[in-house]
Specification:
Radius of gyration: 25 Å
Oligomer: single chain
Number of helices: 4
Helix content: 40-55%
Shape: elongated
Order of helices and strands: HHEEHEEEH
């Protein structure tokens, strides 16, 4: 995945190439070469690409990494206030808390529709198998965060210890 630094690096070199193309265009006008007007378009397009790369370099969303978080899968998202993520059945309580915090950062979007609510609720679930050929979803916890602010210091993380106790013991 490209980072902000990659886009800024590309914008720097594209800017240098744009300036070089502009100088070549100026020389073509000075000597009245027949292709000089084509280079006006080429230089203009290179300028647009340079500005676009620079814009991506300074405005891209930077991902916040939460230590201790494990990978999760998004299993439900209504585009508004409700989402659900899937975590492995081997998760511990500290990993669950970190993963819920990570999901709260990752799933924030200023374009979510609140529909009268101002909080995004993310529920973490896993699948357990209490009997052969029987699968049961088990909700382990949830986090509620603000829909309007990217930096939410008041996230409400709730973990269900009684549900965590139902998870199968990890074989070591």
């Amino acid at each position: 995945m490209l980072t902000n630094a990659d886009f800024l690096f590309a914008a720097k070199w594209m800017g240098i190439a744009t300036v070089a193309c502009f100088l070549f265009t100026a020389i073509a006008f000075f000597f009245k070469w027949g292709f000089r007007f084509r280079f006006v378009g080429i230089t203009s397009f290179m300028g647009v690409l340079t500005v676009g790369l620079f814009g991506l370099g300074v405005s891209l969303y930077t991902r916040t990494a939460v230590p201790g978080a494990i990978r999760f899968s998004l299993v439900y998202d209504n585009g508004g206030t409700q989402t659900a993520i899937a975590v492995p059945a081997t998760i511990t309580e500290s990993q669950l808390e970190a993963t819920l915090r990570q999901a709260a950062y990752d799933l924030f979007s200023p374009g979510r529709l609140g529909r009268g609510e101002n909080q995004l609720t993310i529920r973490a679930r896993t699948i357990i198998h209490p009997q052969p050929n029987v699968s049961q979803p088990l909700y382990l916890g949830q986090v509620k965060r603000s829909l309007g602010s990217r930096e939410d210091d008041n996230m409400q993380i709730e973990i269900y210890p009684d549900k965590l106790a139902q998870l199968p013991a990890v074989q070591g």
